Each structure stands twice: as C-alpha cells, then as structure tokens.
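Dear U.,

For the methods section draft, I wanted the exact inputs and outputs in one place so we can describe them consistently. I've listed the two proteins in the order they'll appear in the manuscript figures. Please don't edit the token lines directly; just add comments below if something needs changing.

First protein:
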Amino acid sequence: MSQGDLVRAVLRLLGELGVRECCVAAGARNAPLIAALLASRGLRVRHFFEERSAAFFALGRVMAKGRPVAVVTTSGTAAAEVLPALIEAHYQG
C-alpha cells in the first residue's frame, strides 16, 4: 500500500467514524497525513505543541460534543503520551 493510499484510507475511516475534529501534534513523520487533514472539507484541525495536551483537549471536546475526536501523533513513543487521557476517558466512562 502506498503512502497516498494509506492516507486516503485513514481519511475515509475517520469520516465513517463521524470524526469532525482532529488534534494534531505535527512533525516530519506525519506531515503527509497532516497536509491531507488540512485539505479535507468538514474537518477541523487543531494544532498542539505536544501530544499530552492534544489528548486531554480531545477528551474535553468528546465530553462537550459527544462526538469522536482524532489525535494524531508522530511516532509510537509520542503516541504513548496519549495514554493518560485514555485512562481518564476509561474511568469517566
């Protein structure tokens, strides 16, 4: 699967899941995905300096709007920074 095919598949899945907002901690590794998100109609992209803030902001948006919010990070170790918000979401139901 090419990088372009992967990006299109991710965008399609986000749409199917009802995602209308993305919180991104951009970096060189996810630049093609971020560019595609920014070009997508009907998708609000919010930028964050680091992943933990993005994740907790996304959790707040989910609680306020009742809709899923995607969090985009650059790598596996960056994705680990999302875990505290995920744990909080689990215990809040």
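Second protein (the one for the lower panel):
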Amino acid sequence: MVQDCPAGDTDRSGHAVGHTKIMMSRSSLLKNLSRPLIQPFAEFFRLEAASGILLLISSVSALALANSNVGIARYFPQVWDSVLAVSVGSMVLTKSLSHWINDGLMALFFLIVGLEIKREVLEGELASVRQAMLPLVAALGGMVIPAGLFWLINRHSPTAGGWGIPMATDIAFALAIVTLLGERVPLALKVFLTALAIVDDLGAVLVIAFFYTLAIDIHYLLGASGVWLVLLLLNRLGVRILSIYLLLGFVLWYLTLKSGIHATLAGVLLAMVIPFRTRLTDPDAVQRQLGSMQQRIQTNTGMPRDLSEELEALSEQIGSPSQQLEHRLHGPVAFLVIPLFAFCNTSLLIDFSTFGQLTNPLAMGIMAGLLLGKPVGILLLSYIAVWFGWASLPVGVSWRQLVGVAVLAGIGFTMSIFVTLLAFKEQPIRQNEAKIAILVASLLAGLLGYVLLRGDKSGLTATPQSSN
C-alpha cells in the first residue's frame, strides 16, 4: 500500500522523503478510515438504546394486555403456558412457550454477553488493569452492597435465596435513557456505564452458575464438558469455520440443559472458545485494496455508498469469527429476543392489592438493593479507588455525573427478572411479587437518574486527592 523511498533520498531540509511520505500516507489513511473503525462502537450504543426503548414498549404492552378484559386479551397470560415439542433425531424436548424463551432464546442473549465480555477483556475498556480498575471496582460495589442489603432484609425469610436479584444492570434500558440526554452525557461516561454493566453481567453469570443450580446430572455434565473441550481444541488448532462452532454449540446447549445447569450458560461457554483474533490470509491484497480505496477518497472518484459497502465487505472478510457472530446476532437479540423475553415475563395481573406486596421483605429487599444498594456500592468503591490512586475518573466526567450513572445502574430489569425465575422456580406468586418490585424500582431508578444527569453539572466536580 505504501512504498518506502530509498534511504538516501532527502528533502531540502534534510528529512527523509520516504519516512515523510509514509507518515503522511498513514495519517491520511487513518483520517479517511476513522469512521469505519469507530462505527461498531457507535452502532453498539445505538442498538442498545433502541433496544431499551423497545423493551419499554414490550413491557407496557404486556402489562396492558394482561390486565385487559376485552375479547381474547383476558386469556393472554395463559398463552405462555402452551406446550411446544421440538425433536432433532433422538433429541426430544417438550417445554412450555415461556421455557423456550427463557431457556432457549435467552441462550443467544448470553452468547452476546459472553462475546461482549471477551471483546472488552481482550481489546476494550477491560484490556488493561489501569483501564479496567474503575468499572471493575464500581461493579463489585454495585453487586455486593445490593446483595447484602437484600439478605439483611430477608435473612429470616424463605425468600433469602433471592439475594442475586438486585445485582445486575440492564444496559439496554440504561443506555436508552442516556441517549435521551444527548450531549449532556459525555462519551467517556457512556463507555464507563457500558463497561460497568458488562462486568455486572459477568458477575450475574457466575452467581447463576454457582448458586442457582439445584441438581446436576453428572453424565450430561460430563458430555457437555467433553463438547466444550472439543471446541477449545478446535480453537487451539486454528479452526475458524463459524458454522462448526455453532453446530457443536447447539449440542453443548442441549447437554447443559439436560445436566441441570441453566442452559443459557452454554452461550457464555461457547463465546469463550470462538476465535477472537483477526487473521489475514493475504495481507498484501488487503493493503492493495485499502490503497485503492484511499486513492479514490482523495481524488473524489468513488461513490460514498460504494466505498462504504466495500469497507463493510472488507471488514467481514478480515474479521474474526467472534466479531462476525457478534455483529450478526446483536440486532436480532436486541430487537427480538430481549423484547420477547420482556413481553413474556411482564405479563402480570395487577390490582390494588398487588402494590401492598411492595412492603413484603422480598419486594423491599429488591427495591432497597436496586435503588439504594446499587448507587451506594458503585459510588463508595469508586471514591475509594480514586482516593487511593488505583483509578481515576474518565476524562471530562464529574462526580455529579457519576452519581447519575450510579442511580441509572439500579435499572435491573432483564437480568433481575432472569435471576428471579431461577431463585423462585415453580413459585409463581413470589415470581410475580419480585417482578413488580423490579419494575417499580427500575422505573424509579430511570426517572431519578435522568433528572440527576439532566441537572446542573457544576457540582461535585472535584476529584478526591490520591494518598499516594
């Protein structure tokens, strides 16, 4: 793409012409191709924000239908109990429609979660200790304090096992609210919120794996372990055919489901072994293509749409299987799987007596965890980390803005409802009570976080001094 000049060639000032041309060419290339490089990041925020709005519409629609006595709407909540059988060869699964959504489609959500965690750890905001420290510490506080508050309120109650419910943040809802605020929220704050929510999700995955698995069938577990080891071996051998990983991933999901471990964890396990690193089979060809595109941009001889499509095709060609899968799944998961999950699990019958349940230990623990534990935990550990010099606030972010984001992190919704289904399996009354508390707490957290971030940014801008 770039030809070096002979070492002896110099310009009038004595500088190497070849080196100068290379630097100018690189600078020009970076400038011309900067949009495609940052496009995935911008697209992530756009998708998550739009998904959050669709989540809200889905939830409100489900509540309206479940509480309507008009026509067939009165039978709406019972739809999710309909039984659906699926067979592939000798494998036969018979589940209710709600189970297919919660155990089947949600595996795709957890696959995306796993891919996002992997990306952030290898190349993103969690790639270095210094970079990752603030969101890691903040997320830790935002998990431990809410769980502790819930347990304190429910410790003498049969509902004490629901301590994992207020631990995670719903990134879609949170980013949807942040997007409504526009330029009032700096990009660095959005990145912090995203990294915090991803660490939250990782914590929730670990909690589900270790604390909400009731019974294990050792034979199916060994089978699932064997399939995962085969996938890992394929990764080590350099196999990059995505369809092979997806086919074996389906087998992994089935064996995980039958083992007693929640099947959605198969999505995270699959994400761990899908190759992430980019591998160029013909770097020279890629360089020639980029050089040609750069020349057309500089001479204004290429149509913008053609260049954009060519860049997308090139990105698909040189992208890793992990990147390709995340790109393909993000839209369907954000706009179909998660809204359908919300539509299914917010089909709640609500009357005046329902709100009386908000004074029960279960509901009080959830609301205290999300509305109080989340912001206190995030802010307390963030302040300690900055005070001791372990981390620093993102550039251009004030403490008041961090308070607003910490409150927004109290929007639990998707993951909180998911943990509820596991913590109170076969206990629909407690499930409904917990869901109402999650909806109320998430609504209040969203409104309060919006008000705080929209308010005056002049306060709380001072950073605590490091003791180092």
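Candidate sentences for the figure legend, describing the second protein: Strands lie at 83-88, 91-96. Residues 400 and 456 are 9 Å apart (CA to CA).

Thanks,
Y.
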